[in-house]
Amino acid sequence: MKHKPILIVAFAMFLITSISAQTVKPNIILFIADDVSWDDLGCYGNRDVKTPNIDKLASQGIRFDNFFLTASSCSPSRNSIITGRYPHNTGACELHTEPPLEMVSFPEILRQNGYYTAQSGKFHMGKYAMRGFDETSEGKEIGDGGEELWLETIKNRPKEKPFFFWFAALDAHRPWGINPFSGIHDSTQITPPDYLVNGQKTRTDLSHYYDEIARFDNYIGLIAEELKRQNELENTLILIMADNGRPFPHSKTRVNDRGMKTPFIAFWPDGIGTERRVCNGLVSAIDIAPAILELAGTKIPESIQGVSFAKLLKNPENSFRSYVFAEHNWHDYEAHERMVRTNEFLFILNSRPQFTNLGPADAVGSPSFADLTELKNEGKLSKEQAEIFIEPRPTEELYFNVNDKNQFKNLAFQEKYKEKQNELKLILLEWMNETGDNIPGKLTADWYEKTPGYIKTTEFGIRGEMPGKAKSATKNNNKGKF
């Protein structure tokens, strides 16, 4: 009997330790690069770019190979990520527009549930999102990247709370200024993708772009070192992604993989271990918000249209979604495209086929575009390179991803694929209907001429009808097919 008090104390200590372990909330950092494609990181097979810090985290975490954005356009994509809603359901699916103040972001929910939340770098979302952060600090200008504020933010945080940081770089958005990493990528050693010209202007353009990515990578390494110094690295979930495709013709603003597929790395020693793993399951950017809320032990509101992918962090080999959906609306130029993707196929519905898709105005003004234009004038473009100049464009596009990873061969309207085309079109139209999307008669028109130099049109500054507004899409919480 004399041993009973010892046993009771030991059992009580065990319970306290177990409960404490279960209630320790993870710290979370979401790093978002600006205008970086999924295949412009070393861990995704790019042999030209230098990203050692991201590659190291990927080697000790999970690399997602089929993670998709909902828009290949900065502010619509970021608003979608932070709300867990499709762009037309945020009320701000066009570039440089803001959701209504009643919109709720996941950092706001974290803040209400005991997290210290801070944002540093590019914001680009609106006043509603500011509510979600105890502290906000934006980069002063595009050229500096904005990352220097990250270290200050992490050092000055209150130490008694779990934290969530939204660290969004301005890198690698154009224009590109001088930075400490300028010149580390040799243009003569760079091989452009097939849809760009293998010319000196393009290679130099890519080298400067990679220099900007290297700065982004460097600061991620510095943050990891600081977390280690603070003994917080093991219990910090680090997520690394981008908001849309590279700022080159054929990528940014496109609804194919070059625009919508994002790199996505998850690193979290305490939560997922340090074994290198790969997840091939389809995941959407709207799934980030519910996943973070689940991991933080908070309730997921009905307004979130995404589904938590937290289970993939434990078992990344499992399948997840059957479909991901995305959209392209006005970004400098008039547009209305919708996309549904499965593991095998990509289907695109274009409601403005009369227009070319040269890319956004910054891409049209790029040296890479100049190389393409020069060869076009000489009649020397390949079919893949000339694709951006097609006018009118196809109303529907279908690609078989298994045999056509670059999505060069449009199979739409071929008899062999007619059934698959109709099936995916029906699924896409059902998603549009269920989530309150529509095709307004008067969309926002081109604000710039489709020539270099940001030459304004007579429509500059005039907004048309926002897709989804007529159907009150901001009040619609339907998820659509999963």
Description of the molecule:
This protein has helices at residues 4-23, 52-59, 74-83, 87-90, 106-112, 127-130, 148-155, 200-229, 257-260, 269-272, 288-295, 310-314, 361-364, 367-377, 383-386, 418-434, and strands at residues 27-33, 62-64, 67-68, 116-121, 135-137, 163-168, 236-242, 264-267, 277-279, 283-284, 324-328, 337-341, 345-350, 396-400. It is an alpha/beta fold. It has 2 domains: 25-318, Alkaline Phosphatase, subunit A, CATH 3.40.720.10; 326-475, no CATH class. Strands 5-4-6-1-7-8-2-9 form an 8-stranded mixed sheet, with helices on both faces. Helix 7 packs parallel to helix 8 (200-229) and helix 8 packs antiparallel against helix 14. The protein is globular and about 60 Å long. The chain starts with a helix and ends in a 48-residue tail after the last helix. The relative contact order is 0.15. Residues 7-22 have low confidence and may be disordered.
